[in-house]
């Protein structure tokens, strides 16, 4: 095979060089603490920012044109000795983005406000003392980040959401490991239509995922080694499917208060200190099906709520849980109450035993 040399005319070489130059010249390089970023901007070095009343954020990024990309040694380090700081980065406007690099030792890592449609991608948000991310706007994408709190009492949540239609995808989240009020992801009551998928949540001081909003979708997550439940919810019409929930100090998945119309499908829930799945309070009209549960203390599937009726529990496999695989406090010894519907579950023990009898 003959390989011909590539002969470029001087004008072609000049065009190529100028084109490469345009890629970099379209970004601003000069970044100082307290700046408001309205154009595409690169941060290539460590930025150590004292936070004050006048400058409570290290940087502010304003969309639609403003964006911050941290490359190489690009890093934001906060000094909040004044106690007046709020966060590392404030995002406002619409379609702003922050990509790459590290945000360290800020009260909160990033706060998303404005009209939303922002992107937070591939960032390490470390040693925050309040919340890693505060999502107060809609339709944002948060993906590929590592979010790890300072690990002290008083640390907040890894991600706390109040806006709607947000997507939390493929993040590693550890809010803190020694407090009782720091969830990995907290979906507040206003944050409807949140999608949480493919995240790893571990060593959080409270729940791995806690949701109070309706229409939340929680799929393909790992929620392990949290100090309370792997997943807990109190709202309606949510989907919890294909998650792996293990080794939590509380239970695996817990629905409480008046949670209704939820689907728990095909989750693997093992070796939690409390129940694998617990229906507490006045939970009604939920469907629990095709889940695999083993090694959980305080039973595999446990209906403990005196007002928990009209739930369907079917086609689950619950084995080697203690003291029982299946429990329903609202059913009598012969299952004549028919408070909930138990169908075709594969289990070794139950209270009452009629829950697994044909």
From TrEMBL:
<dbReference type="InterPro" id="IPR011050">
    <property type="entry name" value="Pectin_lyase_fold/virulence"/>
</dbReference>
<dbReference type="InterPro" id="IPR022441">
    <property type="entry name" value="Para_beta_helix_rpt-2"/>
</dbReference>
<dbReference type="InterPro" id="IPR039448">
    <property type="entry name" value="Beta_helix"/>
</dbReference>
<feature type="signal peptide">
    <location>
        <begin position="1"/>
        <end position="30"/>
    </location>
</feature>
<dbReference type="Pfam" id="PF13229">
    <property type="entry name" value="Beta_helix"/>
</dbReference>
<feature type="domain" description="Right handed beta helix">
    <location>
        <begin position="184"/>
        <end position="346"/>
    </location>
</feature>
<dbReference type="InterPro" id="IPR006626">
    <property type="entry name" value="PbH1"/>
</dbReference>
<keyword id="KW-0732">Signal</keyword>
<protein>
    <submittedName>
        <fullName>Right-handed parallel beta-helix repeat-containing protein</fullName>
    </submittedName>
</protein>
<dbReference type="InterPro" id="IPR012334">
    <property type="entry name" value="Pectin_lyas_fold"/>
</dbReference>
């Amino acid at each position: 095979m003959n390989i011909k040399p590539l002969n470029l005319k001087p004008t072609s070489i000049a065009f190529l060089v100028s084109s490469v130059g345009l890629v970099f010249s379209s970004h601003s390089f000069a970044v100082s603490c307290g700046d408001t970023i309205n154009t595409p901007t690169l941060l290539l070095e460590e930025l150590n920012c004292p936070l004050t009343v006048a400058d409570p954020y290290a940087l502010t990024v304003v969309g639609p044109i403003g964006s911050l990309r941290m490359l190489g040694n690009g890093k934001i380090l906060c000094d909040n000795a004044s106690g007046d700081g709020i966060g590392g980065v404030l995002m406002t406007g619409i379609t702003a983005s922050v990509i790459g690099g590290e945000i360290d030792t800020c009260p909160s890592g990033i706060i998303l406000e404005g009209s939303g449609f922002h992107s937070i991608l591939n960032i390490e948000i470390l040693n925050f003392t309040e919340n890693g991310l505060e999502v107060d706007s809609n339709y944002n994408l948060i993906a590929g980040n590592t979010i790890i709190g300072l690990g002290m009492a008083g640390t907040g949540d890894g991600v706390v959401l109040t806006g709607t239609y947000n997507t939390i995808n493929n993040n590693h989240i550890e809010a803190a490991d020694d407090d009782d009020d720091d969830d990995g992801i907290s979906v507040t009551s206003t944050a409807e239509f949140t999608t949480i998928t493919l995240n790893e949540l571990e060593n959080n001081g409270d729940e791995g995922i806690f949701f109070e909003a309706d229409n939340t979708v929680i799929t393909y997550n790992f929620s392990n080694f949290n100090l309370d439940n792997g997943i807990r919810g109190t709202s309606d019409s949510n989907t919890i499917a294909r998650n792996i929930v293990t080794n939590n100090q509380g239970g695996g998945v817990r629905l409480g208060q008046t949670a209704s119309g939820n689907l728990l499908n095909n989750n693997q829930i093992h070796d939690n200190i409390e129940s694998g799945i617990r229906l507490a309070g006045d939970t009604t009209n939920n469907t629990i099906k095709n889940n695999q549960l083993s090694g959980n203390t305080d039973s595999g599937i446990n209906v403990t709520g005196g007002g928990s009726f009209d739930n369907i529990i079917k086609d689950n496999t619950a084995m080697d849980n203690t003291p029982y695989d299946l429990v329903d406090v609202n059913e009598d010894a012969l299952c004549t109450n028919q408070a909930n519907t138990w169908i075709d579950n594969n289990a070794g023990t139950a209270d009452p035993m009629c829950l697994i009898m044909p």
